[in-house]
Amino acid sequence: MPLVYSCGSKGRLLLSTLLICALIFELGYCQKDAQEQRTTPGRKAMQRKSKLGKATNKGAVTAKPKIKAAPAAQAQTVITQVLDRGRFQKVGETISVPTGDTLELRCRGKPVQWSVPSYLEEDDDGRLRIVQHERYGALTLVNTTGADTGQYTCYPMYCEDTDCRKEYGKAVKVFVFFPDPQELFVPSSDYYEVIQLRTNWPTVLPCQVTSPQAKVTLHREFPPVEVAVDGTEISFDVKKGFTIHRPRPYHAGALFCVASLGNLRQSSTKYMLIYVNYPMGPPAPVILASSSSVVVGENLHVSCTVVGEQDVAIEFTWEYPGQKIGRPLHTQESISPVSGGTALQQSQSVLLVDEVRAVDEGAYVCTAQNLQGAKSVSSAVKVVSKAKPKKP
Ligand SMILES: *[C@@H]1O[C@H](CO)[C@@H](O)[C@H](O)[C@H]1NC(C)=O
Questions:
Q1: Whose alpha carbon is nearest atom 5 of ligand 1?
Q2: Is the CB of 2 within 6 Å of ligand 1?
Q3: Mean per-residue pLDDT for 309-329?
Q4: What are the start and end residues of every segment in region (Disordered) (predicted)?
Q5: Does residue 126 have its Cβ closer than 6 Å to ligand 1?
């Protein structure tokens, strides 16, 4: 739809076209971004806003049927880098800026919002400046260091009156390296980092280099060996670090990265990898009472059983009628392998109620929980009074 496209990219259009455009953008993105974060726009943005806001109401009737087509045609967001002597360069996926230099990025949009490496967001030491101009947002970072290496993202904002929201789908990213002649790794505040290796989840060792030219290898501390990186089981991405795609118990241990460039060879923070046997899903408990109808004075036991993956811990909790009057809880828990050579185990909790009383009548609820979630099952138990001796 050329109409919408030109709306975002060039401003020289008939007023009526603009009005329709404003509406299409609004309707298209309001729905999509309804749950996304709202932000207050800058002063400039608000002035611009009030114009668009009025326009929207007038254009409402004409534009309505075009809502569906709107998201397909969008103005392209672009980040450009401002080089010295006023030259501009459209950035690709990554750029390198010598440390100490100034990083200056511009992103077309009115307004836009930036996201920067988290450490820059956290301690504001006055080196980062973000300014919104008429047609673009400008980000300037001075006195740069290797620690500034990371992802810089520009989000075009959609505004309606004083509410603005990020248009996530139109975000553009550039990964900026600041090659530091002294520091091959982006410094970390921690001496070591504990990382969980989950069975069903890729694990990232975030050793981030400051230069895309650095050669990075992965090492185990004990025994001291280089870990093979085949690109399938373990892969390396210069913007991210190492990824262990399908963690196995033998990946656990202390690992670190080594980067070399020229004469420089440095080690990263240490990563303590801990293997966690992660279940595929929440447990599926089965509850069984020794009897659904118990005579006063007899004993009752209710069992709750889960058959699941080996070495996956199950936590059981109980709710029972006697709780209300403070009847103590007696449970017996056990784990046993499931026969047949399968990698399964049976976990069981048995709730024991001695000398049943009337107050023990009601629902017995067992909740079984593992790292993926919890599930409850219940069983109703009826208490009957002692049978009277039959008359002769
Ligand atoms: C950048 O470095 C220069 C020279 O060391 C210093 O004078 C200036 O204050 C620094 N600027 C900021 C914003 O930190």
A1: 143
A2: no
A3: 90
A4: 36-57
A5: yes
Mean pLDDT of 58-87: 56
Q: Determine how β-strand 172-177 pairs with β-strand 94-96.
A: parallel
Tokens 């991405």, residue located: 237
pLDDT at position 341, please?
65
Confirm if 366 and 318 have CB atoms less than 8 A apart: yes
| Look-up of token digits 């400008």 | 138
Q: Which residue's CA is minimally distant from atom 3 of ligand 1?
A: 143
3-state per-residue secondary structure call for 196-226? EEECCCCEEECCCECCCCCEEEEEECCCCEE
Cα-to-centroid distance, 329 and ligand 1 (Å): 67
- With vertex at residue 265, the alpha carbon angle to CA 261 and CA 271, rounded to the nearest 5 degrees, is 115
Ligand 1 midpoint to CA 134 (Å): 28
For the chain, domains (ranges, CATH) are 79-177 (2.60.40.10), 192-276 (2.60.40.10), 286-384 (2.60.40.10)
Name every residue whose Cβ is closer than 8 Å to that of residue 320 and which is 6 or more positions away in sequence: 302, 327, 329, 351, 353, 360, 362, 364, 365
Mean pLDDT of 78-95: 87
The predicted structure's pLDDT at residue 24: 38
Residues 304 and 379 sit within 8 Å (Cβ to Cβ): no
